Amino acid sequence: MHGIETLKSRIQNGDKIVGASIRMWASKAEIEQTLTSRNYDYLAVDAQHSPFNEENLANVSEIGNEIGIPIQLRIKHTQFTFTIGNMLDLGPSMIEVPQVEEISTVIDAFANFYYPQKGKRSWGPSRSPQTNEHPKRLDYAEWWNAHGILWMQLESIKAVTQAKEFAKAGADVLSWGPNDLAFSRESNLDHSLKTDDDCITHVLKELKETSTKLCLRTYGDEQLARYEQMGATMFLDETSIAQAPD
Amino acid sequence: MTYRIGNWLDLGASSIEVPQTETEATAQEAVDYFYYPQIGKRSWGGATRVGIESRHLKFPTSDGDRIDYANWWNSYGVLMLQIESISAIENIPNLAKSGIDCVSWGPNDLAFDREANPEHPLSASDEVCVEYAVNACNQAGIRLMIRNNDHSQREKYIEMGATVLLENPRN
Lengths: 246, 171
Known about the structure:
The complex is a heterodimer of chains A (246) and B (171). Chain A has helices at residues 4-13, 28-37, 54-67, 84-89, 103-113, 137-147, 157-160, 163-168, 178-186, 196-206, 221-230, and strands spanning 17-21, 42-46, 71-74, 94-97, 149-154, 173-176, 213-218, 234-237. Chain A has an 8-stranded parallel β-barrel with strand order 1-2-3-4-5-6-7-8, surrounded by 5 helices. The longest helix of chain A has 14 residues, at 54-67. The radius of gyration of chain A is 17 Å and the shape is globular. Chain A has one domain (4-241): TIM Barrel. Chain A is an alpha/beta fold. In chain A, β1 (17-21), α2 and β2 (42-46) form a beta-alpha-beta unit. By secondary structure, chain B is α/β, with parallel strands linked by helices. Chain B is built from 8 helices and 5 strands; from the N terminus they run αβααβααβααβαβ. Chain B has helices at 5-10, 24-34, 63-76, 86-90, 92-95, 107-116, 126-140, 154-160, and strands spanning 15-18, 78-83, 102-105, 143-149, 164-167. In chain B, strands 1-2-3-4-5 form a 5-stranded parallel β-sheet. Chain B is elongated. The A-B interface holds A 46, 48-51, 76-77, 79, 98-99, 155, 177, 179-180, 182-184, 186-187, 219, 238, 241-246 and B 3-4, 7, 10-11, 36-38, 43-48, 52, 59-61, 63, 66-67, 70.
């Protein structure tokens, strides 16, 4: 069974979810090797800080969908939310929007991510997951709207303090950008959120009564265990590509 | 598209040139996306950025290494705005924001603009425009970059006051 069939409900239930970052141009053999190293729940590829072309995204998504592991794409910029539907048509199951600062970005991403009557994604999911299982338009739209997973990346104090609003606006996952957030903290020295851990604790508290989860990028099992102890349930392992983007 | 400058830099470029710059807003946005905090707001990331290997930057990056690399980049990268109209030339004092290193020359689009404004004093010739731009750059504390194409033109533009040249390689 394709992992996307259960991933969203597992996230919402607070199950422990661990993914791995891979290169967008990774081969099937490289992906299979990554998956044998650990029982990952999803794989993530990056367009924000890495080279990007649509063929690579389509290829890596095709491999993921054949294997049955969900692919997450981080798009280049908040100004590219209008391309989310097009990116999804190439095969990923999840979209991460980097450096989200405004609620309007979440609203726009949401609209482009979901099919009517939830959103306004255009019909044409030829490479999307599970189309064979749901060949009829309305059936697939309903399935997608219940299974697609939308991420917003928090990378500033301003974003961190809006976590609950982003969740209410439809973000399934709020992810972490520790380095840009550090720049932001360094420019707001008088703010009460002094450390990365302060920010994480704040977001976890804000999300407590919601189904939205926080995902933290990790660089080793020790760090993952520490975040788990803090209350996080979702992780993105960056060690598999060694030189990780943020 | 100036908001994409950070992404292109993450692929390894050391310098960015923004074509057909006309407004202060474009200049400021270019500065914002070119430089890391606390000068700009470039986002941290990119495994193929210039200087990553030679500076032995490790992942995950410590705060000290992150700030060190950001400060290094902020003093290393070169940001140019290409000016290709009479109004852009006249706007050099406002385009020369802190962080802009050079304005560069676009002689052909500038020629179109001169032809559209034949009565303007700067329409007399490309050389008149260069002379005006050199003076404006000197006052603003930035440099003028000229596409001299043929290396035989090098001395001519240096004598006129340009200090950065872009030419075809010699055979």
